[in-house]
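HUMAN: Can I see a protein plus its fold?

ASSISTANT:
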Amino acid sequence: MRSINYTLTDAKLKALKFSDKPPQQPKADGTMPKADAPFKVADGGGLFVRIAASGTKAWAYAYTFQGKAREVGFGTFPEVGIKAARDKHFKAREALAEGRDPAAEKRDKKRKDRDGDMTFKSVSQRWLKAKRVTLAAGTAKRIEDTLKRDIWPELGGMQLTSIKPANVLAIIKAKAAKHPTAATVIRSIISDIFDTAISQLDAETNPAAPLRKAIVVPPITHHRHLTERELGVWINALAACEGPTQATTVKAAQFIALTMCRKSEVLGATWQEIEGLEDEGDGPVNFVIPAARMKMKRDHVIPLPKQAIAILREQKKLGGGEYIFTGRLSPQKPTNISTLNALFNRVAASEECEFIRNADGKSDFSPHGLRSTATTILRERGYSRDLVELLLAHAERGVHASYNRAEQLPARRLALQFYADLIDSLAAAARGDNVVMLERKAA
């Protein structure tokens, strides 16, 4: 980069006054500039001082970037002296030589000073913090894990405005090779972050928006469910794992089966969410999941069958802290989902459960499959679709979207108790016990 023959001196700058303004020439349209319009005094290499009618002397650098005339200011004299202004001029020329826009970099620095770091990681951290207000804790955790695992390693250190569609495409294509659905989730997260940034004037374009059709997602395969006979076999194999594995994880899996809850709802369950357990006698006990932990964002009441209540009383004897089902090594934390998934693989590895092993020898039956199993069996046993949807905490298929938390509670209690008794009967039949299989009870 060639040197500049600067012309101004400290003495010249101090002596400059607005009255030194040269005679004004007409503009291109023939009109004359305003009498109080500032004038420029060149220093060299595009660096100049703009003298205003008020006497202010402001440093600026005029240059061309991508074919367009640009200008970036460096402050006022004498606060910014000649040496400091020329140092800034040198750095701006360096940026320009490297293909960067000095004025844009100055704007980014101002925004960073105002709003904080404008790297993608920092922007997405602020986005997630705002999102946590409306998201369930489990959902927010999954998004954070996705950011940490799949997005930040590639985009985290990049300035928000420097990210291009090609950067996003590289991430989602790498993920799509094995997990196309996860790739679409990644694109959606990045897109939402940029949409939010655009609404706050921190970005002008969304590089993830043009990539909506970049990944082809295969048709959704529904969770495998068990027949009544298979359920009885599986329940026995699950109980047999209580010895070689942690008993609490087995109890958590049994509780999911008995309540038709999602795995995250059970693993995150706290003692505060249980109503009536401390009462004497055989009074009703409810598991009340608060709206903050529910997918549908409203409280969900599960009227517990006696088998689920027995599990709670066993867990209560273990002591512990806030959570009902806790990790063996971390009794103050809930059982990890990966621990539960590992248990399902262990059950599938048993000789009698060969029917749920996939080609890789892993379980083809997931914790969510317990909900599908209960749904199928109860519907086959004659329970209404609306009642089953209430048990699942769904709002679709005709169930009123704003149902009262106690709606059809007696009927739901009878249905869950019937299902829990049926599970016991199916397990006994699978063991070869002489049992009378239950018919549907009145709901």
The chain has three domains: 10-112, 120-211, 228-431. Residues 409-431 form the longest helix (23 residues). The CA atoms of residues 84 and 243 lie 75 Å apart.
